[in-house]
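Sequence and fold
=================
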Amino acid sequence: MKLTMAVASWGLLVVAPMTVAAYVSPRAPFGVVGGKRSASASASASTSALKMATFGPMNCRPIGIGSATPKTLITNVDLESVVETSDEWIRSRTGIAQRRVLQHLDPTQALEAGEEVESLKSLGTQAAKNALEMSGLDPLDIDLVICATSSPDDMFGDATSIAAGLGATNAFAYDLTAACSGFLFGTVTAGQFLHCGSIKNAIVVGADALSRWVDWEDRNSCILFGDGAGAMVLTNTPDTTENSITNGECLPGILGYAAHSNGKGYNDLKCAYEGTGQIVATPGEGTTVSKGSYQRMSMNGREVYKFATREVPTVLKEALDAAGLTVDDVDWLLLHQANIRIMETVANRLGMPMEKVITNLSDYGNTSAASIPLALDEAVRKGQVKKGDIIACAGFGAGLSWGSAIIRWD
C-alpha cells in the first residue's frame, strides 16, 4: 500500500510515492474516524481548491529562528520620486512604510571599493546562521537544508550554496518553489522527513528578492515588495505518543497543517517565461531556439485579495482541526505579510483581535517566502512569542497556492 506526498518544486506539483509506514502518525489524521472522514472535516474543507494535504501532529519541533535583510532602505517618500504615489496613499492601502532591497553591484568594482556584494545566497546563509546559533546545534548536526525561493541567484538553486556557507557538509539540500507559500510548504516537507525519523535536524530557509522582478513603473505593484530571508531549525522529536505527551516528556512542535493549490488562478499572480528567438546554425536554415528571460511580475490585486480573504480563514481552521485545537487555543496569528487589510479581514473572520496578529509589514513590505520567518524571528527575539505559545501560521500566493501550519514554539 502506498501513500503519496505532494511537494511544490519549480512551480510544479511533484508527487512522490512513500510507504505508509513512513507517514503513520501516533494520532489519527484530521477528520479520520474509524477509517472515515468526520463531518467536521468535510464541513471545514475548502470547496474551491485542489486538496493537497491535511495532517495532524508530527514528531518534530522548532528550536531556532533567524533572519537577514539587505542594507539598502527605500521608504514610501523615496517612491514618490519614482511613480505617482504618496506615503499616505501607500500606508493607508497596504500598511507598508518602507522596504529593503538588494542593490546591483559589479563584483569587481565592489571589491575595489571594499564593499560587500549582498545576494540572496548571502541573506539566506546569514539567516540560517542566526537560526543555527539560537538552536545550539553544530552545522555538522544538520541533515537537510531546504531553501524556499522564487528568485534564486542561480536558476539551478541556492540551497546547496547556503548549506556550504553554513558548513553543513553532512546535509543534503534542495530548493522548493511555491512563491509566498514556500516557507510554510518547506516547513511541512522538512517535518515529514523528521516525522518518519529518516533525519534528525533540518533548516528551512525562506528567501526572496522580488525587487529583481517588479515593474518599477507600476505604482500598484512596486510599492508592495521588499527583499529578505528567514530561517528556522527543526529537530526530530523521537516519541510523541499519547503517553509521552501526557507526561510532558516531549511535545510536538508542528501540531497540524493543511495545504492547497489551484492552477486555475495562475494568471492572477505570475512571473512568466518570455524568451527571445536565437538561431542556432544547424545545417540548412538553422534552428530557432529560445534565449531565456522572464516578464516582469504581474498581479491582479483585486482577485488576489478576494482569494486570500476567502481561503485563508478556511485553511487555518482546517489546520486547527487537524491539531485538535480551536481558535481560542491560539496565542498568535502569523500570516504571510502581504497587506494589512488582508490580515485585518482574516483576523476578523476568525474572531481574533489584531493585538494577537504578529506583523512587521510596515518595516519590510512583502518579502514573499521570507515574510513568515522574518516576522517570527523578530517576535521571538523581542519576547513577544514565548515558550509554549501556539502560533497559527498561513501562507498564500502565486500558483495559486495556500496553506497553514499550527506551531508550538519551543
